[in-house]
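One-letter codes give the sequence; the integers encode the fold. A sample entry reads:
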Amino acid sequence: MNPLLDKLHPYPFEKLRQLFEGATPNPALRHISLGIGEPKHPTPPFIKQALADSLDGLAVYPVTAGTEALRRTIAAWLERRYGLPPLNAATQVLPVNGSREALFAFAQAVIDPSANALVVCPNPFYQIYEGAAFLSGAEPYFVNSDPARNFGCDYDSVPEEVWKRVQLLYLCSPGNPTGAVLSLTDWENLFALSERHGFVIASDECYSEIYHGDEAPLGALQAAHILGLSSVDKPYARLVVFSSLSKRSNVPGLRSGFVAGDADLLKKFLLFRTYQGGAMSPPVQAASIAAWNDEAHVEDNRAQYRAKFDAITPLLQEVLDVQLPDAGFYLWADVSRTGLSDTEFARRLYAEQNVTVLPGSYLAREAHGTNPGRNRIRMALVAETAEGLEAAQRIVQFCNSLTK
């Protein structure tokens, strides 16, 4: 067996299952899960219809690069959404079977394991980044999020000797689990570091279309364009972005996303994926074209999340330290005032109120003397508003019972 597999940590949901062993939830209450970030809003009917209408495509082997129609559709969406100059859909866009698969595979294509490589990851983080680093033969280097910086990471704190070994930097903006969005200044600093040290930036932007203010989150390609990095000889050099329809269009089971950016990187990544077997099914491609071409359902989806967060966040603020995030569908709450650790809070809440939340320490690693997820919980507000409100009310009742 590949010895690198032994470096992998149990996935957070496996740790949660172990945490709940022996805990008997209150039988008088139906279970409500805020633990998994799986969109629960209905899939738009027109996407399902486009999928059904294209089932004859199952008789055709798909090409790894996807159809020209899908690549052009994705390029056009990026241009509209981020105000980008025209992209070359043939060289700067690559459809993938969901951002998760592509984020993992990308490290295998980029990393030179003979070079004592490091992969920089935010902390807390999406677990795929760490697994991708280990199985590519590299080591992850974690940069802790800081509540004082709106949960941003202080990349200036990374020592020069570390940057010299970095081959890949994973970013998530809007962040999972914090919802933090990188600013133009953040991007400018990161681009300068990439230029100086030659590492690749992989920007995970799958939460970009769920935001709570009037201004849409800044994207990496957008920041590069604003800073003049899209018009040089090698536009978007060492930069790729990953996005997905899962959250935007409520189709996590469709497994449809894309990678876009540096044409030289995508050429090599396409070669890797040709051998890996990452071609997207033709019916999925047809449904994806329909989804990327429509914004009305995205606006409706965003409105539902805004209403839900506006109703639930004030309730939880009565008992927890939690703020409305910049974007995404998670609340990242500090439970310290309850007197319980994040794991104790999650286990007792499950047993007493039959509500599942995810301990924040499961989403982070001990780094630089601390685990930035400790004493925090992640709550995914993915269910319908009524169910989310009921869960919030139970959490309030649970927290109030701790002080009696």
Observations:
- Residues 59-294 form a domain with the Aspartate Aminotransferase; domain 2 fold (CATH 3.40.640.10).
- The CA atoms of residues 203 and 220 lie 7 Å apart.
